[in-house]
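Hey everyone, long-time lurker, first post.

I ran two proteins through the pipeline my lab uses and got sequence/structure pairs for each. Pasting them in order. The first:
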Amino acid sequence: MEAKKGQAITLQNVFTDDINVDVGSMAAGVAAMKGTFPLGEGDRHDYNIFFSASTQLLRVRKVDGKWLQATAVQRSEGNETRKIFEQIPPEFPADAIDWKQNK
């Protein structure tokens, strides 16, 4: 984790950039949009999305002026982590797919 320029990491500010959304209970194979998320400046965004039973990894890149997203869902079982879902559009940059969570 990086501190913002000139700002030390403290217990008071360590989670200031976190966004928590309560999606409630969802059955397998069901999806629900819970609003929009402004991407702002730049041409790259990486998100790690945590659920109680799995972790969703989201990579967003601007390609030819259009935002594209790639996503994977991982589930931890003991000491093993396995990918249970992956969706990558064909035009998404292949070198941008890095599912490591600790970036």
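...and the second, right after it:
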Amino acid sequence: MVAELSLERWPRKEGTKDLGPEDRGRTVDILQEFGLSERRSCRLVETPRSTVRYKSVKLHDQAIRASMRELADRHRHFGHPRLYVLLPREGFWSNRKKTHRIYVEVGL
């Protein structure tokens, strides 16, 4: 009952939860192809311009995974702490938590 009253008091904005950030960015791109400015198309889609302009800086770990597998094959008795020390010598810098996450994901 209380939840129903609060929903009636503060209604949800229409269209805000229907699209994710990537979908909103694509929608803004389509609107720009029709000649609308970035500001106007973002206002129509109700999304911040910073969300549309955001570029992910996430790096793919394939090279680190391959190097970690190779090191683990060469040194079978080494665990992830020792592999963490050896990875920079191979040219791959990574923090301790990421090294452990990759070690577990690879199943070494």
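Reply from user beta_strand_b:
Welcome! Quick read of the second one: The longest helix spans residues 21-33. The helical segments are 2-9, 21-33, 38-45, 49-53, 62-74, 80-86, 96-106.
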